[in-house]
Amino acid sequence: MKKIAFALAFSFFSFQIIAQNSIPEPEKKYKFGFDFGVNYSFAFVNKPLPNTKEISNGIGARLGVLSEFKISKKLYLSPKAEISFNNAKINYEYSDDSYRIMPLTLELMVPVKVYLAKGKWNSYFFAGPNFKIPIARKSPFENFFEPNSDLSIDLGVGAEQRFEKYKFSPELRFSFGFLNVNRDPSLTYVYNGSVSLVLKFIE
Question: What does the pLDDT read at residue 120?
């Protein structure tokens, strides 16, 4: 009888240990990571430019840190801070000078991310405000007018794949500024925008 009782007790505790080991650890509510990528920055104006000036858009880069806060199963808040190198500018005809539109910015974003479908790649879309703070940077061949700060709306899509130690997701992002960033007195309103391809790594 004692042997049976011991066997039952041993079986019970063994089952409890196996069951506990088979239960996955709960997902962290806060996660942290980093990202980097390329961006195509562009400028646009509210009135036609003089014949002696023209807009030139170009490719730049960005990198930053990010976090994620889980609100629900499909809804996340994903604040991030990025440094963006932008190459939109206004060229002056008959001169090597140019007016760089926000060449270097610190960008503070608070997008909301919503998952759409789950599989090997979990697709999602996101949208939120982006506050862009210009960082002064002057080259020898540009007129230097320190730009105003900008507030934009960022939105985009991405796909996420989980690995053992981290999550990886490529992301396509669109940013549209709606504040005048210009301080050149010879120009009127100048707005800033970008299209970015970003690679994200998060724990």
Answer: 83
